[in-house]
Amino acid sequence: MMLDIRDLRVTFGTRQVLHGIDLSLARGRTLGVVGESGSGKSVMALAVMGLLPGTARATGRIGFDGRDILTMPERDLCRLRGNRIGMIFQEPMTALNPAMRIGAQIAEGLILHQRMSRRDARKRALELMQMVRIARATERIDSFPHELSGGQRQRVGIAMALAMKPDLLIADEPTTALDVTVQARILDILDDLVTDLGIALMLISHDPGVIARIADDTLVMYRGTMIEHGPTERILRSPGHDYTRSLLDAMPRRVRETLGDAP
Known about the structure:
The protein is an alpha/beta fold. The chain has twelve helices and ten strands.
């Protein structure tokens, strides 16, 4: 397994926010993590990235390709982030540097980590922009983030996460605040990347409809606890827990009907 988490617990001071998470994720597979705000989804993602704040204490094991992220020294974690594990953050406008052109932001990791020349890094940045279907990429490469739409900025975030060819990609609410058409396009891009590149994808969302679209397996979380974990179709069509049923009931009826959940 590319990612193998066992009994992960995270505590802030005296408050425990993750309670014994167990999951695994292989190459070429997508795991959907769904739950309401505050359920611990993003905390789990930050733990996998080794980016928990200093006030947090994590125990258990986060196995990544045979090594435990929780016991890695910071130097090794810095090599891991970006190179082996990429992350798409929830709000691209705050994740991107407003004072840098987007091409330079995509190329920055290639220059620093892979020692590419600026010319080669810019060429690769353009290829990545085309890969994530940014229209008129040759013109947009010198744009600033505020000159792009929300969907285009999210595509830039995906391109940045893919620049180092990671084995694991974590997408934290990548379609939040996007209209349904753009949302569908972003999910299609992510799904194609898993298929074409063979990466492992952890897709985090509060929306079961987003998870249903591309996830092979689904983990339902509530207050830092695993509620259900298994094949997406089984969990969304025949949920075994009241909380999962409540999440589905909160969706528009037409969406539930596409999942086969509506009576």
